[in-house]
Fold:
Amino acid sequence: MSAEEDKSVQFPVGVLISGRGSNFMRIHQAQLAGRIAGHIACVISSRPDAEGLAYAREHGIPSYVLPAEVMRREDAFAETLIGWLQQHHVQLVVLAGFLKKIPDAAVQAYAGRMINIHPALLPAFGGKGMYGRRVHEAVLDYGCKVSGATVHIVTAEYDAGPPVLQKCVPVLEDDTPDTLARRVLEVEHELLPHAVDLFARGLVEVRGRRVLIRQA
Ligand code: GRF
Structure:
């Protein structure tokens, strides 16, 4: 297959992580299995001890750690991040459990080409401080009958960009935050690789707040 025919060669993806990195690994596994177009060109972590980094190293994926002192300065953070992404000709930035606020300059540089996965049905249970276990606790505290996952475009405001993909899961009567988190994570693992594939195949059109998915 020539480079022109192989869509994955033409669509480098940059993945940002802060911890476990299971969403990142699922994208990579989908890529290795040939289930999606696009390929992970680099992984960038906000923490040196993120478990996902070990996976990246084992699989020969270029990986970077953002130093804490760089992330403290918005301009240095943006410059470093954009620099690494450009070095790998990244076309789509995927926030997969990345816990730092992306500097505005980087959001603008990748406007419409940066996505995040959130473990609830936005706009419910999103925003600053709403991450990880807290989201599932809030869903249960509210008494919701459904939860789910949202892949959305990243904008300047936390979790406020237009949804690209959403999928529900039921909330069961004996759910704890942990059991609900596991059920939602399964859906995240399905949605995020699918979103990467849609972008890589040029099937996503952002029209204001409506994200249109064209049929292949
Ligand atoms: C996921 O639940 C994701 O929705 C949230 O952080 C978690 C990351 O998990 N933003 P992992 O690091 O991909 O395993």
User: Anything to note?
Assistant: Residues 17, 19-23, 96-97, 117-119, 131-132, 185, 188 surround 5-O-phosphono-beta-D-ribofuranosylamine (CB under 6 Å). The radius of gyration is 17 Å. The first helix runs from residue 7 to 10. Residues 1-5 have pLDDT under 50 and may be disordered.
